[in-house]
Structures are given as C-alpha cells and as structure tokens.
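User: My collaborator sent over this chain with a note saying "see what the structure looks like." That's all I know about it. Can you take a look?
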Amino acid sequence: MESLLLTLQQYGLSEKEAKVYLTALQLGSAPGSTIARNAKENRATVYTILKELQKKGIVNEIKKDNVTFFSVIAPDLLLRELEDKYNSFKEKIPEFLALAETFGNKPKVQFFEGIEGVKKMYEDLLSSQTEICSFLGIEHSNKELLQYLNREFLIRRIKNDISARVILSDTEKNQKYAGIDEKAKKHSIIIEKPDFTIDGEINIYGPNKISIALMHDTEMSGIIISSEKLYSTLKNIFDLVWSQNSK
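Assistant: Without extra context I'll predict from the sequence alone. Here is the result:
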C-alpha cells in the first residue's frame, strides 16, 4: 500500500488524493462517507478531494436512491491520462527553455517556501548530470522533510545513479548520517572543528546549479540559482575543503 501511495504521488497526486484514490479503488463504488471512513480521513476533506479528482477526470459519481456514489477510473486509464499530460508538456519543453533564455546570461533564481516547496526544490536535484556536492547539517531539521529525503528522495537518487559527496559539521545526527554512506551511494567527510557549523544544506550540482535549503520548523524555504560562474566558484571551494579534510 505504501509503495502504491508513493507511486501515485510521483505522478502528481497529493498524499491525501492518492490515499482517497486507492480507498475508492478498493471499494469499487461507494458514498463519500464510506470512502472517508475506510480512508480514516475527515469526511469534509474527502468530499473536497473527490470533487477535485472529479475535475481532473479521475473520479466519477452517480446517484442511487438519492445517495451519491463515487468511483475512480481504472489504473490503466489513469496511466493513459498521465501519459497524455506528460507528452503534452514534453512537446512544449523547447518553448519553455526558449523563454527561460530570454534574460541572456543573468543568473536565474527560483524561490520555494514551506515544506512542499522545499520538497519541489529537492526534486530538481534528481535531474543532476553530475554528482551532487553538499554542505549539510541536519541537527535541527524538520522531521517530515527528513523522512521525505530518506524514504523518497534518496531512493530515487540511487535509482537515477546520482552519487553524492557530503561535507558535514560534527554533530551526533550528522555522524549517524555519515554511517550509511555505502548503501546511500555517497561519501561523507565530517569536519571535526567546533567552530564549523552548518544549519541546512547547500547543494552544488550540474551542470550549473546551486540550491540552498533552510530546513528548520520555523524557517522552511529554499532557493535554486542557475549560474555557471557561481557554480564554478562554489564547486572549487567545495573541492578545496574536501581535499584538505579527506583521509
């Protein structure tokens, strides 16, 4: 069930939309109250989700004896819908890229706010054409974000064959994180100096991007900067720190 939920989320449904879809798929055709009870979600929330999925063409409704029953389209039809949207978007990629180049050689900056925004920022790292080089400190990071990074992002990074080098400050949590290097397709270095602290993450990834994430409960935001010169500068700094502290 958990893997199916993740698959649906990867294809664009929110966590609760995916949960409602799977519940309705199991029930076949049922009133919204029944779907809510089986999904263990608030009834009003489920009705709102069903209406949103109906707008997307995923949910159908029919009245029987003045009771509204809901059903969802079969997974193969859902896949076809998603493939159509993907192909339509793919056809427009050259136009999007041409628009992005309008500002010439100026750095391009994207801002992300809140936990869902920061998750979207991390999704961009999965397009890296090189290894990801990171300055990282997770000691005060949001638990939900860490779960996403460990359970979803990491799995997909490994699947995409993207390796990572990580420079960490010397904390208990960072030491545990460094201990999973082999299975996580990464190499870590811990800087054992009390005045070297990192709260959040800076990622340097190819061909020309830098992402900065603030991961605390009270300060959750991110930024992606696309700049060849800034990428080159920070990559050189990273490589210098790495070489001076690698054993």
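A starting point for your reply to your collaborator: The longest strand covers residues 209-216.
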